[in-house]
Specification:
Elements lengths: L5 H22 L38 E13 L10 E4 L9 E4 L9 E16 L3 E14 L4 E17 L2 E13 L4 E15 L2 E14 L7 E15 L2 E14 L6 E13 L4 E14 L11 E14 L8 E14 L6 E13 L1
Length: 360
């Protein structure tokens, strides 16, 4: 049995990877001193390490466009590469039929498969303009992943444009447009995203409001095509020079071509980072959400409500000198736990590994 629900959970991986792509617009060197961070990348919007940045006077410009290149090398162990259902066998009772429960067994391709994954990628950031009040950036990413036990190689490609502008001394806004393509093996998906973020400084931190809309287009399973809109309110707090925190809450809605893929989602997130020394830092983040589907397959369940828990904890080390381009190695453990009113939609996943980020 091959479940179309694979496509619902493919969007989890999409959101995470696009967040890293968006983060290139602000987390690489030369971002403005007061520019808002990505808000959705690793560390949930907090920069992992101090990055050298020029100090600009009023109306001063950089000499010209600047190209910054970066790379990523990663190796990790994934307990559920394709986000397959947790249970290989499950039963259901069709409503309105006087029969007992029916048992189904997933074939091997749809059962959880663990594997070592090796990944290599290239990041590029081209700064079009930087002044005291405004920055324009083009950014892109290309990643290749090799899944050892499946003998498969998958690709990720993305690019985008970001405009940051300061409104006054304590507030700024950022507009980002991105395009992203990912090969999942079973299918491939193209994603276009447009987001706008307003950030205002407050005592010991800042608050931000982010609105976004994204369109997903699958190559094979077109009923999962749809548009996702989201609104997030965040609070960034730095109670001490070594400690950074972020709290966020929001709502999103996914309108799909197929009614069984349409849902509403309420979520809350928390993240923190603690600087142990100039070279070492600890970080952790967690996200909780409740997802309600408008319609369900009557053969599987009378309703579909899911509780989703995801998070990450890790240790980050800066290998280069503080004044030079940052080379960063990260060791982390990530998890995903999806509990549903029907076991056919439940998923669990853990990913343990290390990643080296290089900036030139």
């Amino acid at each position: 049995m091959r479940l179309s629900t694979f496509y619902h959970y493919a969007l989890f991986a999409l959101a995470a990877q696009l967040a890293l792509l968006e983060g290139l617009a602000s987390k690489m060197p030369s971002a403005p001193p007061t520019s808002p961070s990505a808000g959705e990348g690793r560390g949930e919007g907090m920069e992992p390490v101090p990055v050298p940045r020029p100090t600009l006077r009023q109306n001063e410009r950089l000499p010209g466009p600047r190209l910054t290149l970066g790379g990523r090398l990663a190796a990790y162990y994934d307990t559920n590469v394709d986000l397959a259902p947790s249970e290989a066998r499950f039963s259901f009772t069709p409503p309105g039929i006087g029969t007992g429960p029916i048992e189904l067994t997933l074939d091997r391709d749809n059962q959880p498969q663990d594997s070592w994954v090796v990944s290599a990628g290239l990041n590029a950031r081209y700064q079009l303009e930087q002044t005291h009040r405004q920055t324009q950036v083009l950014f892109g990413q290309m990643v290749l992943q090799h899944i050892d036990d499946l003998g498969a190689t998958r690709s990720i490609v993305g690019s985008g444009y970001s405009l940051w502008r300061g409104l006054c001394r304590d507030s700024a806004f950022r507009v980002t447009g991105s395009f992203y393509y990912r090969d999942f093996g079973r299918d491939a998906v193209a994603m276009q995203l447009l987001s706008a973020t307003y950030r205002r400084r407050i005592a010991h931190g800042s608050v931000d409001l982010r609105a976004s809309v994204a369109a997903h287009t699958f190559e094979r399973y077109t009923p999962a095509d749809g548009e996702k809109t989201a609104l997030t309110l965040g609070w960034n707090l730095s109670p001490s020079p070594a400690l950074s925190c972020r709290l966020a809450a929001g709502a999103c809605s996914y309108q799909a071509r197929a009614a069984t893929s349409t849902y509403r989602d309420l979520f809350a997130k928390a993240a923190l980072q603690y600087q142990l020394s100039p070279q070492w830092s600890l970080f952790a983040n967690i996200k909780l959400s409740r997802r309600d589907y408008d319609d369900v397959n009557p053969m599987l369940a009378s309703e579909r409500v899911e509780t989703v828990k995801s998070g990450q904890v890790g240790l980050r080390q800066r290998l280069s000198s503080r004044d030079g381009p940052p080379w960063i190695i990260t060791h982390s453990l990530r998890f995903l736990d999806i509990q549903s009113t029907n076991s056919a939609f439940e998923r669990q996943r853990q990913v343990l590994g290390s990643e080296l980020q290089l900036f030139f």
